[in-house]
Amino acid sequence: MDKRKLANRQVKDRLLAALVEFAGRKDWSKVTVTELVEQAGVARASFYRNFASVEELVDYGIRQVTERYHAGKPEGREGFRDRALVEYKFRFYRENAKLVLAFHRAKAATSLLDLVTDCEIAAWGDMPLSSPARYEVYFYAGAFYNVLLCWLESGARESPEAMADAFMGLVDGVVRHS
C-alpha cells in the first residue's frame, strides 16, 4: 500500500475509533463532524475527503468488520451446524467486541444484525424466495446475534469453544423439536 493510501486508511481508522468512543454516551445520529474530528485529532477536510456523512463512517466500520470476518474465516466451512465455524464466529466477535458493543450501544444494532445476517446469507448462498430453508438462515442469524450480545455484554467470560458447544446444543435442540 502506498504512503498516501496508508495515511488515508489511518485517518479513516482514527475517525472510526473516535466514533466508537461516543457509543453509549451519544446516539451516533447525533454525533457531529466537528466532535468526530476533534476526538480523532484529524482535520475536518480529512473527514470530508473520505466520507460525506457520519452514516458513511458507520458503513465503513461495517465494511471493515465484514472484510476481517471473511479474511479470517476458515476455508470450506459453511452453515450453522459446522462447530468449527461457530467457534470461529465467537472468537472473531470477542476479538472485535469493542466495535460490536459500540454498534449495539449506539443504537445501530440493526446494522450489526444485518452484518451477521449477511455473513450467513453469504455462507449459504442465494436461495429462491420459495425455499423454506431461507427462514432457517434468518432464525440462526437472529439467535446467534442475541446469544452473542448477551455473551459480550456479560464480559465474554466463557471461552469461544464453550460458547460454540452451548450454541450448537441450542441449535440441535431446536432442530430436534421441529
Automatic annotation (TrEMBL):
UniProt DNA-binding residue ranges: 32-51
Range of residues in the leader sequence: none
The entry's keywords: DNA-binding
Domain HTH tetR-type: 9-69
Origin: domain of life: Bacteria
GO molecular function, one term: DNA binding
PROSITE patterns for this protein: HTH_TETR_2
Transmembrane segment boundaries: none
Protein name per its UniProtKB record: TetR family transcriptional regulator
